[in-house]
Amino acid sequence: MSKRLLIILIFTSLLIIILFINSLLVPKREPNRSSESTIIDLVRNEAITTRISGISKQKNISIHNSEDEDEDEATQFFEKFDLKIPSRDDFENLILNDEKIETMIAAGIILKEPSFFHAALELNPNNPHVFFLLAQENSIGLEKKLAFARNLLELQPDNLVASYLLSSVQIELEEFDASIKTLLETDKQNLFDDFFVETATIVKNCLLEFNNSEAGASLYSIFNMPVPMTVKYRQIAKFLSENESLSEEESIQTRKLIAKIGSNLVNQRGLIINELVGISIQKMAMDGMDDEDNSPFEGMNNIQAKKNLELQKEEIRGSVTTDIFEIAELDPETIVEWSNIILERGEFEANKWVENKKGN
Q1: Could you give the C-alpha distances from 64 to 43, 202, 335, in angstroms and in order?
Q2: How many CB atoms lie within 10 A of CB 250?
Q3: Given a cut of 90, is residue 252 above it in pLDDT?
Q4: Average pLDDT taken over every residue of the chain
Q5: pLDDT-based confidence at 49, cuts 50/70/90?
Q6: How many Å apart are CA 96 and CA 227, to the nearest integer?
């Protein structure tokens, strides 16, 4: 028996065992209820106070875990690109052929099936991307999610997102002191990596393996991705803002933590949804404060901070908040370049680029 055939047989057996165990141990999700929010879901969420004309008109294009009407609409949308979503059998056959962890990650994301993440972790026990995904998976118990989040932070001690993820799990476990301690330790961290670019790239490349168009794969890889961390940022900020048993000094420190979370999101200049959530968190840091109170923002008083937030909102309003259905009408080359700019420089810059291109 050849070495390659032996590897394939071992991998197949391992995957079958993992899937079987997972089916017995993992709690089932509630029917007709998605376990994750997508980017489009979040911009429709009324909890986000800053709404932008254009983005708020976008429709849910998720083709999984959706109502029949939304599913028909999504199908029609992606039919423009002849986009075909691989089946489980398709993915398993590709995994057996290419033996890539990236394919397993893509399968888990597209099919919303965490057993592929577990299988990937068996092959690479120290993969930070897999730890990141598993620590956010709703079907996994909190204690296991805590372990995955800690593993990620150990591998990436400079990553703010790893600390935010760990803190959010600690909040869910009601380990409040530990959560605050985790947040206080973010002061020396400089990296902000939410794996969005890596995830989008993996999903796009995988869809291309199934002979999809680059334009369709690009749109899907960006706008149909789950973004649970965006929800967790607000969860952390809400937890901090509702802590009433604080001294005046502790309250100021807490507001600074909230302000920093919001500022980190805005400063990334990634997806506009993150900037919107960041602005709403920054505003949360000043809830109930008078103009003369100590500011939670470094280098500016409360009056200056409020003006700065308004400028941030106006800047986003001044950008091209293009409806994704309008983007779909552009030529394929423009769609691909627009998607690439989002990953390289952020959605804000990508929208400005599209506006300039249409103006010419």
Answers
A1: 18, 19, 23
A2: 12
A3: no
A4: 80
A5: very low
A6: 29
> CA-CA distance, 254 to 238, in Å (whole number)?
11
Task: Please state the three-class secondary structure of the chain as a single string.
Answer: CCHHHHHHHHHHHHHHHHHHHHHHHCCCCCCCCCCCCEHHHHHCCCCCCCCCCCHHHCCCCCCCCCCHHHHHHHHHHHHCCCCCCCCHHHHHHHHHHHCCHHHHHHHHHHHCCCHHHHHHHHHCCCCHHHHHHHCCCCCCCHHHHHHHHHHHHHHCCCEHHHHHHHHHHHHHCCCHHHHHHHHHHHHHCCECCCCHHHHHHHHHHHHHHCCCCHHHHHHHHHHCCECHHHHHHHHHHHHHHCCCCCCHHHHHHHHHHHHHHHHHHHHHCCCHHHHHHHHHHHHHHCCCCCCCCCCCCCCCCHHHHHHHHHHHHHHHHHCCCCCHHHHCCCCHHHHHHHHHHHHHHCHHHHHHHHHHHHHC
Say which residue the tokens 């099936």 belong to.
113
194-223: pLDDT as tens digits: 999 999 999 999 999 999 999 999 999 988
How many whole angstroms separate alpha carbon 304 and alpha carbon 230?
26
Record the tokens describing residue 305, joined without a space: 């901070």
Residue 81 reports pLDDT greater than 90? no
135 within 8 A of 155, measured Cβ to Cβ:
no
Q: What is the mean pLDDT of residues 68-75?
A: 55
Given a cut of 80, whether residue 71 has pLDDT beyond it is no
Residue 88 has pLDDT above 90, yes or no: yes
- Size of the chain, expressed as the number of residues it contains: 360
Written as six digits, the tokens of 280 are: 């709403």
